[in-house]
Structure formats: C-alpha cells, structure tokens
Amino acid sequence: MLVEVLISFFLVVSGIFGLIGSLGLLKLTDTMQRLHAPTKATTLGVGGVLIASMLFMLLVKDHLSFHELMITLFLFLTAPISTLFIAQTHILMNLKRGDLPDTGREHSWSIYDDPPDQAPVGEENAKG
Amino acid sequence: MLKRIFPHPLLSRSLLLVWLMLVNKVTPGNVLLGGVLGILVPILTSPYWPGRPGLKRPFLTIPYIFIVLWDIVVASIQVARIVLFKPRNQIHSQWIVVPLDLTSPEAITVLAGTITMTPGTVSALLAADGGSLLVHCLHSDDPDDVRDEIKTRYEARLKEIFG
C-alpha cells in the first residue's frame, strides 16, 4: 500500500513537471527562454518516472535494475550538448555581436574569434 | 606500453561498469565483453582526446553529484513557479558572463553541463581563449548574485576535484 502511494507520488510529480515544461514552451516567447523548458522537463520530469520505475522493480518485482541509472547518465550527457547546439545556432543566426555582453577578456566569444594558440581550449570551441 | 593499452584508465573502467549495468547481469562472458570494449573504445577514440586528465580528489565527486541533484529539484520548483505565475512581461531574462578560474577543458565541460542541467540557467558560449562562459538566465533581478553562486557553488568544488 505504502509502496504504491510512493510510486504514484513520483509518477504524478513527473507528470506535473513534464506538463509545466510543455506549458513553458507555449508561454515563453524568445528562443533562449524556450530552451529552459526542455532542460527542466528532462531533469525532474524524466527523473520522477525513473525513480518510480526503480522503486517498482526493487520493491514489487524484487530485483534491482540499473537501466534507470543508465538512462539518467545518458540524459545528463546528451541534454547539455543538444541544448548547446541549439543555443549556438540561435546566436549565430539571429543575434549580432553587439547583442551579447563582452567577455571581459582580450578574446571575443568562440563563434566570432579564433582561439589563440597553446591556450586552454574547451570542448565548446571545437563545436562552435 | 601500459599507457598505450589504457590511454584513459578511468574511461576504461567506466565503460566496463556501464556495459555491466546495461546488460544488468554479471556473468564471466559479460565481464569479458565489457573488458574488451573498455580496452578498444579508449584506444580508438584517443586521437580525439589527447590529454590524460586525472581527478585529483575523485571522492569529492560524490558530494558534488548530490549537491547538483538537490539544486535541480529546488531550481525546478522555482522555474515552474516562474512559468506558471509570472506574466510574460515580468520575466527578466538576461545574459550573464561568468569569468572562469578553471583551465582544464574537462572541468569546463562539466561546469557548462551542470549549469545547463540546473533549470533556470543555460550555458551558451565560451570565450575563444576559454576564459569566460556566457550563461543565459531565465529570470533574475540580480545577475551578479547568479554569477557568484555559480562560482562558489560549482566552480570552486570542481576546482578541488580536478585540481
């Protein structure tokens, strides 16, 4: 009984956050603002379903499943990268250099400026 | 010699672990197959990942993961309230420039990923010399506060982990 209540709780929470994520897409107007909605939907929305699934496997089916942890891992690896792609494409296509704040350094942002030699170059640079 | 077989020992170990979790059953055959993958994949991908970064204090990653998970829950609720109850014209989105103290590409990647995964902030661009990060914030009245929180909460901890 208690187990079922707990599992339903996580399912309902994830449903609510998934719904709010989609509502966010509808309500927010700017592309950059809209990017925030899917990151939220994946983290708490999917997270809730995964916790519920793990609890169900562990407490009802009596065996431990690691697949949910793997889904979490792959989501955490892929979501920031796709978000970064969309953000950089949006900045490149729709924004001008003046729309962005200054880096506060000698070099400008990676999509406008070439990286200096022998400098620490992040993964984002290669993609930009 | 050992370095040529295991260009990234940590990656080899993670691949073996991920493989065992994917098949969800520990048998000698699966361990062997995971071991082969753990050796082959790092060798094949090592031209694209020339550095050999080590974690200076690997055990600090565990509290870091829990801090990030907790922040995701708290920030999700905050963002949900903004989406549901704030009128469109009162959402003040802005760009925030975070100057970085981290220098290793791996550490910066983890920081950018953390910023994106915590709701309310999305990392968008890196400066050409890797010295600052452009972050988009969904709603904030005090951008300096958000920047300081990223620096003290995540960057300082990553600095300890990566050394």
Automatic annotation (TrEMBL), chain A:
Q: Does the keyword Transcription apply?
A: no
Q: Where is this region: Disordered?
A: 106-128
InterPro entries documented for this protein: PhaG_MnhG_YufB
One example GO MF annotation:
sodium:proton antiporter activity
Where does the signal peptide begin and end?
none
Q: Which UniProt keywords apply?
A: Membrane, Transmembrane, Transmembrane helix
Give the transmembrane region(s). 6-29, 41-60, 66-87
Q: Which residues form a coiled coil?
A: none
Domain of life from the UniProt record = Bacteria
Query: Which NCBIfam families does the protein's record reference?
Result: CPA3_mnhG_phaG (TIGR01300), PRK12674.1-5 (NF009316)
Task: Identify this protein by name.
Answer: Multisubunit potassium/proton antiporter, PhaG subunit (TC 2.A.63.1.1)
From TrEMBL, chain B:
Tagged with keyword Zinc = no
Q: Where in the cell is it found?
A: Cell membrane
Q: Which UniProt keywords apply?
A: Cell membrane, Membrane, Transmembrane, Transmembrane helix
* Transmembrane helix as UniProt keyword: yes
- The highest taxon in the source lineage is Bacteria
The record's section on InterPro entries has: Cation_antiport_E
Q: Any transmembrane segments, and where?
A: 30-49, 61-84
Bilayer topology term:
Multi-pass membrane protein
One annotated GO molecular function:
monoatomic cation transmembrane transporter activity
Q: Name one GO cellular component term.
A: plasma membrane
Q: Which family does it belong to?
A: Belongs to the CPA3 antiporters (TC 2.A.63) subunit E family.
Which PANTHER family would you find in this protein's record?
NA(+)/H(+) ANTIPORTER SUBUNIT E1 (PTHR34584), NA(+)_H(+) ANTIPORTER SUBUNIT E1 (PTHR34584:SF1)
Stated name of the protein = Multisubunit potassium/proton antiporter, PhaE subunit
Which source organism does the UniProt entry give? Antarctobacter heliothermus
